[in-house]
Amino acid sequence: MGQGSEAIVRTQIVVEAPIERAFTVFTQGIGTWFPPEYNLLAVPIAERVFEPRAGGDVYDRGVDGSICRWARVLTYEPPTRVVISWDISPRWQIETNLARTSEVEVRFVRESPSRTRVELEHRHIERHGEGWEQLRDAVRDEGGWPGALRKYAERLA
Amino acid sequence: MQITPHRSEGWTALGDPTRRAIFEAVANRPQAVGEIANRLPVSRPAVSQHLKVLKNAGLVVGRRAGNRRIYEVDMDGIAALRSYLDQFWNRALTAYKTSVEKREDTE
What is the ipTM of this complex? Predict the structure, then answer.
């Protein structure tokens, strides 16, 4: 890895809503905003579920009843803080090795009774590193970047 | 098991076909803006603009070679993943804001 890139993503947004609503929509209301095209199931999503407790799961239920669990609720402290794992590998598959998963912490800060600042930190991204190392090794084995990068670009595009 | 995160145009740096072609050219062989512009049906200033986006996304880096700047792929994949997730969350939180505020309006 290296080149000094920080393996953390931080972003925030201010919403015109009381802190309780901001927290509830982020968690139990995840199905109303989390990009629907992010779907690891083979079928369309019928329901996106955020189990509101530490130890719960975040999962998608497909129209055929199949289930994809893609995050674990690590910390659940309404209405100010929630931490979930990110169990999706750089190859966009469910990561079953928990040592290779990252974390998303979300903090809710009351700016006024009707305004809330939501701060998000996606950290330990370097734990997913294995996927990138494999990609790099595959590139070496195949003797060059173009093939692997084309695949990478196709996946991103 | 593929995620298809490309439905909104221009969301990712590689969502644009021209930018993808430039990225592939640079991936094929490190080269300068002029060389890329000669091979693709894109003007020099446009190539520079696209390179700037790719650079900001952590996908390519520029290094000085004499009086030219040579672009090559950023070998640090973590930077690319980081950039990708950064764009992902910014888009997701914008959708979240819309959802939170819409719910408030209807009550």
Answer: 0.76
